[in-house]
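One-letter codes give the sequence; the fold follows as C-alpha cells. Both lines appear below.
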Amino acid sequence: MPPKRATAAVVGKILEERRDLARDAALKEIKALHGDLTTLESILSGRRKKGDYSLFDVIHGAFEIFRNASTSFETEALLGTCAQELEIVKALEFLQKHGATELVKPAGWHWISPRGEMHFLGKAEETEKAAEKLAGILQGGRRSKRQKSAQTEDAAAQTVQPTDTAVEDV
C-alpha cells in the first residue's frame, strides 16, 4: 500500500504496474490453458492416453485468466476515473487561484474581472468547462493586442500587394 501522502503520479504508477502484472499473468495463463486444451483435445479424440492429465488444470487455468483479466480491467477503469478526478481538481484549483467563485444565486461558477464585470463561467457541475472559459477570458486580454497587430499587418500586406495583371487597351 502506498504511503498516505503519496502523490497522484506515484499512485498512478503503482496502479499501472499492477495492471501490467495482471495482464502479463493473464496472457501467460492463456498460453498454459491453450496447451492444456490441446492435450485434452488429443485425449478425447483418442490420439493420446489419459495418463495423469487432470481436468482441474483446465478449470484452474480458466479461473486464473478470469481473475487476472478482471483485475487488469478494474485497474484500467480506476486509472481512468483517477485521471478524470485529477482534471477536475486541477480545474477547481485553477478557478480558486484566479478568484472564481461558485455562487448559489445565480447558480454556477462566476468570476468578477478587475473592471467589476461578472462573467458566468459555467454550471456548478462543469468545473472543467468553467476553468477553460476562465483561461480563455484571462488570456483574451493579452492575446487581443497581438491578434490586432497581426490582423493589421495582414490587412496592410493585402492592400499593398501589387497586381501583375496587365491592362490591355481595346
Remarks:
- The chain has two domains: 8-90, 102-160.
- The longest strand covers residues 108-112.
- Residues 8-90 form one domain.
